Amino acid sequence: MKPKNMVCAFVLIISTMVVNAERGDYFDALVTLERNMLNGNSYVKKRLQEMSQHQKKFTRLEKDFYQLLQAHHDYLSSNLEACKERLKPLIKKTNSIDIKAKANILLATADHVLGNHVESFIALDKAVKAVPNLTRQRYKASILQTAVGIYQQAELFEFALELARNLQVEATKLKHGEYLCIANYELGVIEQRTNQIKMAKQRLMLAVEHCKNNNSKIFEYVSTIALNEIKTNSGEYEASNQELKKILEPVNAIGWKNLMTQLNIAIAKNYVGMEDYHQAEKYARVAYNRATEGKDRRRLQIATEVLAHIYSSNGNKEKAIEYYKKFAELNSENKIKVRERKIAFDIARRVSQ
Fold this sequence. Notes:
Layout: H1 3-22, H2 27-35, H3 41-52, H4 60-76, H5 80-93, H6 97-114, H7 117-130, H8 137-153, H9 157-174, H10 177-193, H11 197-213, H12 217-233, H13 237-246, H14 248-254, H15 257-273, H16 277-293, H17 297-313, H18 317-352
Helix pairs in contact: 2-4, 3-4, 4-5, 4-6, 5-6, 6-7, 6-8, 7-18, 8-9, 8-10, 9-10, 10-11, 10-12, 11-12, 12-13, 12-15, 13-15, 15-16, 15-17, 16-17, 17-18
């Protein structure tokens, strides 16, 4: 063996020994909790409280990991400022490249929702650049998927498509079902937004299949919603709602307000199509409330538009005017945000260079 190769091998052995030493008695339990983060906020809160009793015995890596999970729970509970307050010191102090990258993408997401777009893109860029060097494969998929979503909302479809394809290549190479689930979902949504409906439908059907086979519930549900939105746009309102209502209970159990908003909007739109305005209002109102609680301005805009249409159709002119005004304000605000995100993206790229 050449001296250079011997040194590299020696460094790899030493680094592996250090990582294994840092993975103390609680690391596997923290990994299990992380994989169940979307099983409902009450479950996660209970498990985090149980784990907190052992913090004195945690290794440094386990302490950082625990803080990351706490921040993720804050995010899923829509406590975005609390999420950021945990992440900023964690990013500075952790020696784990995996935790730093995952913390950066979570920070990027929180800042994105809060409208801090330059900060969001800077954190996103740091996370994406770290992906090739990560040791935890799940984090590679998670970071790429989140970045794709943020690029999509900024209408930076070229960058979103590039990362989604990278994710699919990585998933195919590893024959990793969960990654294939996520990659097909992201590609399907991009194709749906760019009016490649036939391709989007095939892609989303593949996503649902991969997600179900790999117990990736959150992406199974968002893929199901996206797939049934295609049915809605084809006038298949009843068939769409039959499928959407099957996931209503498990989505509510997860407790993520943004996902609940998305599902209730989709159901409300089908009832509008069937001209059942009583049921449409019921689900649109839930969507409006969850979007407000989750500070999701983009989906709040959609919910107000649906409510305005409902009240206009059932003759409630006063409420129709009220919600059309709200919709107009949010629509204007969100268009400005898209422009701001594109400008922020350019600024962030210059800062990161």
